[in-house]
Amino acid sequence: MRDELVHRHQPSPNWDERALPISMVVIHYTEMQPVETALEKLTDPEAKVSAHYLITEAGEVIRLVDEDKRAWHAGISYWRGHPDVNSASIGIELDHPGHAGGYRAFSDAQFEALVPLLARIVKDHDIPRANVVGHSDVAPARKIDPGELFPWERLAGYGLCLPRPEKLEQGDPFDNDASFYLALERYGYDVTDGHKAVEAFQRRWRPEKIDGEIDGQVRAILFQLLLDRDQGRTR
After folding, report:
1. Domains and their CATH numbers in the chain
2. Could you tell me the pTM of the whole model?
3. I want to staple 138 with a disulfide (CB 3.0 to 4.6 A). Which of 25, 65, 79, 104 is the partner?
4. Does the structure show a pLDDT above 60 at 1?
5. Which of 57, 93, 148, 199 is catalytic?
6. Phi-psi region of 81 (alpha: psi -120 to 50; beta: other; left: phi over 0)
7. Does 31 participate in catalysis according to the annotation?
8. So what's the pLDDT on residue 84?
9. Average pLDDT along the chain
């Protein structure tokens, strides 16, 4: 498949056939540097990992797996009723040192390459903004990427993911922590490890404070997200 947004192809053998239609995009960071190290792993048949795309810090877009195939990027994961996220998603790896290698802001060149690629993917597959997520959203017990410095709000400015709710309904909609976890699961998260699920929610929606604690602010944000979805303001 020819795509003017892709600078080069480096095919990975690590894929199989999809069992579900494409309805999601999952954003990762590689946590490996230099980028050649990440490419080597993502194309190594022994590693059994891959993604559809890798974007370097310089903004080069590399296709590893064709979009109609199931890349092996999400691992054990779950989102909105789907335990096989790989079958339903396109995976984009961002070349980045990650938390283990000196976590820092993502480069402008990388972001500027991501935006048109993601816009094309979202349009081609009619992907809801709510289904453009981070690896930590679909695997909260295992993963923290792309992390709290990923510019979700900047991406939301292009209409490519949901923005953080600005107007929050007053009052506390959840009687206790159990009701919050039920609501968090209803929104899409795997809440098997409740503390990690709350951390993942905070990392995405309130990155300035990630402590895994259920407080009034995270309750209000979750309630507003559900309200917006249920009232048809978001998908």
Report:
1. 8-156 (3.40.80.10), 177-230 (no CATH)
2. 0.96
3. 79
4. no
5. 93
6. left
7. no
8. 96
9. 95
Residue 159 Ramachandran class (φ > 0 left, ψ -120 to 50 alpha, else beta): left
Q: Cα-flanking dihedrals φ and ψ of residue 204, to 5°?
A: -85, -40
Question: Quick check: 220 and 228 in contact, CB under 8 A?
Answer: no
pLDDT of residue 171: 67
Q: Residue type at 93?
A: E
Helices 194-205 and 216-230 cross at an angle (nearest 10°) of 70
Tokens of 209: 């404070």
Residue found under tokens 């709510």: 130
Distances (CA, A) of 95 to 17, 37, 58, 111: 26, 10, 9, 11
Neighbours of 71 (CB within 10 A): 27
Percent of residues, the chain, with pLDDT higher than 90: 91
Minimal CA–CA distance to 73: which of 108, 100, 38? Answer: 38
At 151, give phi and psi (nearest 5°): -80, 70
DSSP secondary-structure letter at 17? Answer: E
User: If you compute the radius of gyration of the chain from its CA atoms, what whole number of angstroms results?
Assistant: 17
Average pLDDT in the 172-190 region?
93
Instruction: Return the half-sphere exposure (C-beta side, CA atoms, 13 A cut-off) of residue 66.
Output: 7
